[in-house]
Amino acid sequence: MGNMKLFTVGPVEMYPETLAIRNLQIPYFRTDEFSKLMLENAAMLKELIGTNNDSKCAFITGSGSAAMEAVVSNCFGKSDKLLIINGGSFGERFVKICQIYNISYDEVRLNFGETLTNEKLSLFFDNKYTALLVNIDETSTGQLYDIHLLQDFCQKKKMKLVVDAISSFLSDFYEMDKMNIDCSIISSQKALALAPGLSMIVMNNTFYHEKVENREPVNLYLNIKEHVKNMERGQTPNTPAVGICFELHQRLMEIRKMGVENHVMMIHQRAEYFREKARLIGLSIPTYPLSNTLTPIIFDKGNAKEICNILVNEYNLMVTPNGGALADTVLRVGHIGNLKIEDFDLLLDKMKELI
Predict the structure, then answer these.
(1) What is the CATH number of the domain that holds 320?
(2) What's the distance, CA 34 to chain centroid?
(3) pLDDT per residue as tens digits for the range 65-86
């Protein structure tokens, strides 16, 4: 696996500086030094995600799904009704979490290839909801939903807006407060290009006070209130992913120095370059709005899995296979992490030979 080039959507090709940090002995963490690092992480994260420094930040040791579960279970209950945009396996994950915690919901269901439109959303306008939950980039399809459409809908209906930005943050334009997003969920292994295992929940003050602060806990490990309380002193209630917290500090400083807009533009340029060349060699790409994070490629012959296996086994090029109903017809090429234009040229050359 050492020479494998990752065109995946998490984990991704990591930067040398991150790999150097991964090589270091992990220190003990109940110290003033670690607290200082975590408070700096929280401040930088809030700045880069575009929210007020008074917003609350919780660091969850777990993949993005742990943070999704933490938000749904800690913020909503039997008296709530949620509206979920379900256009793929990650929208479906929000649905499953609601089912497990017995939280009432409706779904805006989108089949593969369908775009989220105002017409589809307006069918639910007359119903009463507490909040809308959306994976703003539905990672299984690459569709980037229109945040302004969702923001407008929630503002008119006085609903909270909860956004899983796990595969969109730092790839697509994202400004939490300007977009009236109440709660954002992000994770370490996407555009941050860190090891998997650390997720972050960022909530504005109003959302935290109304939906979390006075609610009785329904779980222990995923208790957001305990995480927020501990973060006041730069700590977490349980042992955090200490090594990834150090990786995060280095990457946040790097991205801050580069500028979020420049980082997003870099990913955008890679995505546009790949898509233009992919179409020229005859690859089929969906017509719905796409996130910069990844490009889904459609194989009508049903040989997506086969092509994915050849790329891995013969050329050490790892693209992202799809699961479920799309396993044979769609594979995804990621544009995040430590990749260069010549990496995409190599991938395109090999794909051209296989189609």
Answers:
(1) 3.90.1150.10
(2) 26
(3) 999 999 999 999 999 999 999 9
